[in-house]
Amino acid sequence: MDDTPTPTPAAPPNFPPPEPAALATEAPRAPGPFKRGFGMGAGLGLGLAVTFVALAVVTGVFALISTAMALGSITSSGASTSLSTLWGKTGASGKLRALSISGPIMTDASEGGLLVAGTFGYELAEQIDAITKDDAAGLVLLVNTPGGSITGSKAIADAIDRYQERTGKKVLVHVEGMSASGGVYSTAPADAIYADHGSIVGSIGVIFGPFQRFRDVVATSGSFIESGVTTTGGITQEYISAGTGKDFGNPFRDMTDAERQMITTMLDTEYDNFVGHVAEQRDIPQETIVNELGAQVFGNDDAERVGLIDGTLNREEFFRKAAVEAGLDPEETVVQALQPPTGLEALLGASRPAGSALPIAELGEGHRVSTSFCGGGAPLVYAGDLAGVCS
């Protein structure tokens, strides 16, 4: 047996593994002008769209808030209760509230519908009742009125009493031309009454009418509703009524003695109430009012002498006086008043400041101020010729 060792086979050579062939890479190309413009435009458009949506949402929210605020400042009768600065520095720490009694005083907006001009007593009373002691340091009434209905005038006077009792604040009046009859009635409870230069105050009396009586009628004048009638045989007009005196005021018959006495008694009662009211509020003896003042009107000096006003001040002086009386610094006081409707309020149906009627000039000629004024339907505390507001 051959003991020669078997040779060990040689190990294969250790070659490094082959490296993969490198792939050729292409350098990135810059985007072309169209691609760059399109991307920028798309991004800008998206940003603008998002911004527009956000602005629309914000605008919508503010519109809803503004609408809600506007609706809250409009009464059921279409009047605005928004405030604006009448005098002083906007944003001042001291505040006074001003309300106007201007033109004929009527009871409410139902007297003649939109064919009116002046002040609505019930609405103005509601505005006074709505003022709290935290809203203002006092109330000022700016007056230029010939008077009007007893009901409307008394409503304002009663509201002044309630305001003084409820808030403990003072009410001051500034007569800016005229405070006659119902003007005196409505403002008598005020703590002080001042008149601007050249004003007239007074006319404490009651009137009812006019009552017409046609005699020997042969024609009636025409109107825009019906044509005139002319006849040589006369004109007869007849009322069929039940109840004594139901056709009272028929211009084709005389007033009876009983009817005349009834009206006189009613006026005497209203006159006594008027005199008693002014006597109590202004501390003037009733006998003085009846026997000396009568239904006359007085200039500033005489009105102060008889006790109807407390002095003469122009508007600037009056506002400063009102601020001092309210315990305020006039330099840090703002007087706020109801303003005409804003554009949004007008769109929502507001047509006038609360308590005030539309100026007669805006209604055109031929409109009656109020059926109660021009129809002779109730006694009035009014001074002057009704033709000025009834024609």
From TrEMBL:
Membrane-spanning segments: 44-71
Keywords: Hydrolase, Membrane, Protease, Serine protease, Transmembrane, Transmembrane helix
Domain of life of the source: Bacteria
Domain annotation Peptidase S49: ranges: 165-328
GO molecular function: serine-type peptidase activity
SUPFAM superfamilies: ClpP/crotonase (SSF52096)
Feature: compositional bias, Pro residues: 1-20
Region (Disordered), start-end ranges: 1-29
Biological process, per Gene Ontology: proteolysis
Regions annotated as coiled coil: none
PANTHER family per record: PEPTIDASE S49, PROTEASE SOHB-RELATED
Family recorded in the similarity comment: Belongs to the peptidase S49 family.
UniProt-recorded name of the protein: S49 family peptidase
Originating species: Tessaracoccus antarcticus
